[in-house]
Design goal:
Layout lengths: L2 E6 L7 H16 L3 E6 L5 H13 L4 H4 L1 H25 L4 E4 L6 E3 L8 E4 L2 H8 L3 E5 L2 E4 L4 E3 L5 H12 L3 E6 L20 E3 H9 L7 H9 L4 E5 L13 E4 L12 E16 L3 H13 L7 E6 L2 E9 L3 H15 L3 E14 L9 H12 L5 E5 L2 E7 H14 L17
Parallel strand pairs: 1-2, 1-9, 2-6, 3-6, 4-7, 9-11, 10-12
Antiparallel strand pairs: 4-5, 7-8, 11-12, 13-15, 13-16, 14-15, 16-18, 17-18
The structure holds aspartic acid and magnesium ion (MG).
Length: 426
């Protein structure tokens, strides 16, 4: 008998009918002889609606900043609704079930309201209930601090609850049910040829999630990597009888890459900007001063490059558009102090990240990327790399055509492309 942790996102539990479909699926897994622990999100847009209420009552756009404790109290109500309803639906089908809040399930977090981190899961109560033959339903996205305050893990945090529970229970598998068929080679809403990736590594998924692929919460994948939890991402809209062992995307530590591809996937994140500081005194000291100042302004720098110019050093820095004002102020101040030439800026940029462990052994990956961008007729505003990824910064107006062309150039298109499903579970 194996233990499976299943997680259902907001769309998957978004209506009474969807909740019943989830109950059918859980019961089917149970009757196939598995122990099942289920983690649920709030129904549909419930979390957004609760936040909107808080905004109305307080007159604040971000009520969590002023009332973090109370916003956590409020938001955890969303998951309580779906967990209790699911428990009832499962019981109606003749299986035993019990719902538990994050606190009851002993998901222990630090004290940072609205963005708490899980420090420990003391899963005895869950384990006992499972041993007693029950399906245990745990509220996602919430925990309790050592000071006994109720906390939430940050938007999209139910994935993290599921993977942390799977790790602490020593589950055989964590199944993440969502509104798309799995992890795609690119966003299927924008790249029509995108298809489901059958298997990929934790490291590749961490990169894809960080680069903007929205299918799973990046922190959840980090926990899965650290504790070696096998995660399968699959659609809750498929027939419950369909074999979950063979559909969707399997994320493991070292997958067998049957497809022999150089790249596994492409993701994009818009809203980037670049500052260029020119005619600066050359040397490491200058760059250090700029970076120290930006750090002190609480802004995080993404890409950085420096190059000598005819009348001094040129330093380029990319930041999120939201941070541009703060970063610009610092840059101007430093340039003035050091007697530099000035500061230019470009906003409306998109990062496109190409991910794949396969590119280690493939020569000419850069050449192919650059040729492709040249053909698309875009300009390149920056490049950065990690062991298994290459990121390029391009104007957002060209981002979609660049992604399509790169997807094509690296033959990510599949003959057996899965049609894109309902979008937006996030
Ligand atoms: N309900 C929470 C949110 O909307 C957590 C989640 O769905 O993962 O962010
Ligand atoms: Mg989600």
């Amino acid at each position: 008998m194996s233990l499976i942790v299943q997680k259902y996102g907001g769309t998957s539990v978004g209506s009474p009918e969807r909740l019943q479909a989830v109950a059918d699926r859980v019961v089917a897994r149970r009757r196939a002889g598995h122990d099942v622990v289920v983690v649920v999100s709030a129904m549909g847009q419930a979390t957004d609606e609760l936040l909107a209420l808080a905004s109305q009552v307080t007159g604040r756009a971000r009520p969590g900043r002023t009332h973090p404790r109370e916003v956590d109290m409020l938001l955890t109500a969303g998951e309580r609704v779906s967990m209790a309803l699911l428990a009832m639906a499962i019981r109606e089908r003749g299986e035993e079930a019990i719902s538990l809040t994050g606190s009851q399930a002993a998901i222990i977090t630090d004290a940072s309201h609205t963005a708490a981190r899980i420090t420990e899961v003391r899963a005895e109560r869950v384990r006992e209930a499972v041993a007693g033959g029950k399906v245990v339903i745990v509220a996602g996205f919430q925990g309790v601090s050592r000071e006994r305050e109720i906390t939430t893990l940050g938007r999209g945090g139910s994935d993290t609850t599921a993977v942390a529970l799977a790790a602490s229970l020593g589950a055989d598998r964590c199944e993440v049910y969502t509104d798309v068929e799995g992890v795609f080679t690119a966003d299927p809403r924008r790249i029509p040829g995108a298809r489901v990736v059958r298997t990929l590594s934790h490291a590749e998924m961490v990169e894809l999630a960080a680069a903007g692929a929205q299918v799973m919460h990046p922190r959840a994948i980090e926990i899965a990597a650290r504790f070696d939890v096998a995660v399968r991402v699959l659609s809750s809209f498929t027939d419950p009888e369909t074999d979950p062992e063979t559909t969707g995307t399997l994320i493991v530590s070292t997958p067998e890459h049957m497809e022999g591809l150089v790249l596994t996937g492409i993701a994009a994140s818009p809203g980037q900007a670049k500052l260029t500081l020119y005619d600066l005194p050359s040397g490491l000291r200058t760059a250090t001063e700029v970076l120290r100042g930006i750090a002190e302004a609480g802004v995080s720098v993404d890409m950085i490059s420096e190059a000598p110019g005819p009348s001094g050093m040129k330093l380029q820095i990319s930041v999120m558009e939201d941070d541009l004002d703060d970063a610009r102020t610092v840059c101007r101040e430093v340039v003035e102090r050091l007697g530099g030439g000035g500061v230019d800026e470009i906003s409306g940029l998109t990062r496109i990240t190409l991910v794949g462990s396969g590119m280690h052994d493939a020569p000419g990956v850069y050449a192919r990327i650059f040729e492709t961008l040249l053909e698309v007729g875009t300009e390149l505003q920056g490049v950065s790399t990690s062991a298994i990824s290459i990121t390029v910064l391009v104007p957002s107006a060209h981002a979609e055509s660049a992604m399509r062309a790169l997807h094509d150039a690296f033959e990510l298109e599949g003959a057996g492309a899965v049609p894109s499903a309902v979008a937006g579970e996030g």
